[in-house]
Amino acid sequence: MENELYKKVYQIVMKTYRKTNLKRAKFTDADVVLIYLWAVLHDRPTCWACNKNNWPIYYRKRLLPDPSTMCRRLRKHGVQLLLRQTEKSLINTSARKLCRWIDAKPLTISGSTTDKQARYGYATGCMGKGYKLYAIGDDKQGFVQWRIYPMNRSEEVVARELISQIGPEGYIVGDSAYDKNSLYEIAGRKSIRLFAPRRYKNSRGIGHRRHSKYRLSSLARLETQFVQTMLNYRDNIERMFGQLSSFACGLKPLPSWVRGLFRVENWVRGKMIFFQIWRQYVSPNPV
Question: Would the pTM of this model clear 0.90, i.e. be above it?
């Protein structure tokens, strides 16, 4: 399956790439992206992909950069832009759904790590150290918006950023952590209906402070069958996280060479690209 995924990503990258003139550069941005994705596909460090012995025979005629060149070029704007455009082109292949889901997935690492950017925060039922993947998921388009931050970053704060970046209209469903006035306000201004279970289920009211009109409207419809059906299916994003982690080339626990926010974000983006290809072209039933 790896060869099938790589052939597809090669076609997409070359179709997306717009040639630019780089002074004294032996390798284009597309070359750097494809070499990096080869390493991500096989869960290996970037230096592994710089060795011709780790490529199929029909690829070994290509000139490969050294690891230091890859490390330097991966931080260039053109390479980062091409990675994002490749992922976006895959997302836009499918039509969006009316209802989307929002949640976060912890990416824990060892507590004894020397990674200065990793932080302690709330993971699944416990405290952990590392990073967290904050995402908005769509049944058809996959993860349409996502961010990587240290584990201690509030889900509410990142949700503001995610919701502000998606298109207008539709519905977003989250768990009780997203029952916040600020999120209802941001979503409502974009004609997006946010629905989340009450944060405090046993409370008799919602307090006497001022509340967003969008939150009051959503709470008034919370017991309707339509909204309850959407809330019952909010674990769809958990299934998507499960698919992202469980398919052959998926996002496993972060390997020891993926440390620091920049490297973690690059690694996750590479896995997201292959996840989108797997959902669209390989998996018979991705939903």
Answer: yes
> What distance in Å separates the CA atoms of residue 278 and residue 214, rounded to the nearest whole number?
37
Q: Which residues pair with 128 in a beta bridge?
A: 121
The total of other beta-carbon atoms located within 10 Å of residue 210's CB is 7
As a dihedral over the C-alpha atoms of residue 198, residue 122, residue 279, residue 255, rounded to 10 degrees, the angle is: 180
Supply 141's token pair.
């388009």
User: Residue-wise over 19-39: b if at least 16 C-beta within 10 A, else e?
Assistant: eeeeeebebbbbbbbbbbbbb
Q: Are residues 35 and 74 in the same domain?
A: yes
Work out how many domains the chain is built from and give that number: 2
Residue 111, Cα to own-chain centre: how many angstroms? 24
Note whether residue 267 is domain-resident.
Answer: no
Q: Are strands 142-150 and 127-138 parallel, antiparallel or unpaired?
A: antiparallel
Non-local CB neighbours of 244 within 8 Å, separated by 6+ positions: 105, 143, 250, 251, 271, 272, 275
Tell me, yes or no, whether 8 and 57 share the same domain.
Answer: yes
List the chain residues with pLDDT less than 70: 21-23, 201-205, 207, 283-287
